[in-house]
Amino acid sequence: MEDNLFFQPNPMIIKIPPPQKILIIYNPISSAGNTEAIACKLEIELVFHGKTVEVRPSEKKMKGYTLIADEIANSDLVVVVGGDGTIRKLLEVINKTSIPIYAIPGGNESLFAKHYAMSSRIEDLLQAISTGTCLQQFYGLISGKSIRGEKPFFNMASMGLDSLTVKNIGKRKGPLNDSIYLWHGIRALC
């Protein structure tokens, strides 16, 4: 058999040892505010399966994650219960530590979780943990005049109406739901 790219293992797929120390980060305002309950259920189930688990709320700003970078680096796996924004804020720290993440869909869209067929079912998380197969994902950086520094993005970047909608939603406090996105989308359009 000829040694060419068709017969090489996928360099994007890496094997990891089964994680024992798991950090669960939940976004308290995602998914109408029920992510903490989901994170606590996951903790109970993972501890039952012999894992060491720590649960904490997400940070509001990307800079906040640099304060817990050691916590992340001392984990074998980070489980994110939230949406794409929660994952986006973690990208820089995750990149520096190379800790794998599993996303439990908890946002309005959760495109990252959907794209990689990650679900909120504990059985799916346990199966992902036991197989030890991890897909290496790269992300890009956006910079510009009105952007302070560089902002990471992974499977999509938005601009215009969508970007203004997300910016306005980011100023809110409290749980989010689809009607909030609709309201701020119409407001941005006007």
Structure description:
- The chain is α/β, with parallel strands linked by helices and 190 residues long.
- Helices cover 40% and strands 22% of the residues.
- It contains eight helices and eight strands; from the N terminus they run ββαβααβαβααβββαα.
- The protein has helices at 35-48, 62-67, 69-73, 84-97, 111-115, 122-131, 161-170, 178-189; strands spanning 13-15, 21-26, 52-57, 77-82, 101-105, 133-135, 140-144, 147-153.
- It has a four-stranded parallel β-sheet with strand order 3-2-4-5, with helices on both faces. A two-stranded antiparallel ribbon has the order 1-6. A two-stranded antiparallel ribbon has the order 7-8.
- The longest helix is centred in the N-terminal third of the chain and has 14 residues, at 35-48.
- The protein is globular, with a radius of gyration of 18 Å.
At a glance:
With 190 residues, the protein is an alpha/beta fold.
Key features?
190 residues; 40% helix; 8 helices; two-stranded antiparallel sheet; alpha/beta; 4-stranded parallel sheet
Largest sheet, order of strands side by side?
3-2-4-5
- Count of DSSP helices? 8
Q: What is the SS-derived class?
A: alpha/beta
* Number of DSSP strand runs: 8
Radius of gyration: 18 Å
Q: What's the shape?
A: globular
Strand content: 15-25%
Q: What ranges have pLDDT less than 50 throughout 5 or more consecutive residues?
A: 1-8
**Ends: how far apart?**
62 Å
Classify the helix fraction into a percent range: 40-55%
Secondary-structure element pattern, one letter each: EEHEHHEHEHHEEEHH
Mean pLDDT: 78
- Major sheet attributes: 4 strands, parallel
